[in-house]
Amino acid sequence: MDKLGNAKKTDFESTLSQLESIVSRLESGELPLEEALSEFEKGIKLAQQGQQRLQKAEQRVQILLEKSSVAPLADYDNND
């Protein structure tokens, strides 16, 4: 991994790509039930991994901004 965290970006991008592939296969409706359940389970795990990576990235950004002299940030509210 380089100083900018590109290995983690690749990991996240890979996770997202795998998840998109699983969603496409599930949406096709052509998988047998057992295979669809297996793919769904993999998809749930990948989604959780992606969410964890995003949360860690958000925490890192928050820490970096708190340490800098940038203007204070307001908390994000996605209900706006």
Automatic annotation (TrEMBL):
Xref: Pfam families: Exonuc_VII_S
Class of this enzyme: hydrolase
Single GO MF descriptor: exodeoxyribonuclease VII activity
GO cellular component: cytosol; exodeoxyribonuclease VII complex
Gene Ontology biological-process entries: DNA catabolic process
Principal location: cytoplasm
EC number, UniProt record: 3.1.11.6
Location within or outside the cell: Cytoplasm
InterPro entries documented for this protein: Exonuc_VII_S, Exonuc_VII_ssu_sf
Keyword vocabulary terms for this entry: Cytoplasm, Exonuclease, Hydrolase, Nuclease
Catalytic activity: Exonucleolytic cleavage in either 5'- to 3'- or 3'- to 5'-direction to yield nucleoside 5'-phosphates
Subunit structure: Heterooligomer composed of large and small subunits.
Function recorded in the entry: Bidirectionally degrades single-stranded DNA into large acid-insoluble oligonucleotides, which are then degraded further into small acid-soluble oligonucleotides.
Similarity comment: Belongs to the XseB family.
NCBIfam families assigned to the protein according to its UniProt record, in alphabetical order: PRK00977.1-1 (NF002137), PRK00977.1-4 (NF002140), xseB (TIGR01280)
Name of the protein: Exodeoxyribonuclease 7 small subunit
Organism: Testudinibacter aquarius
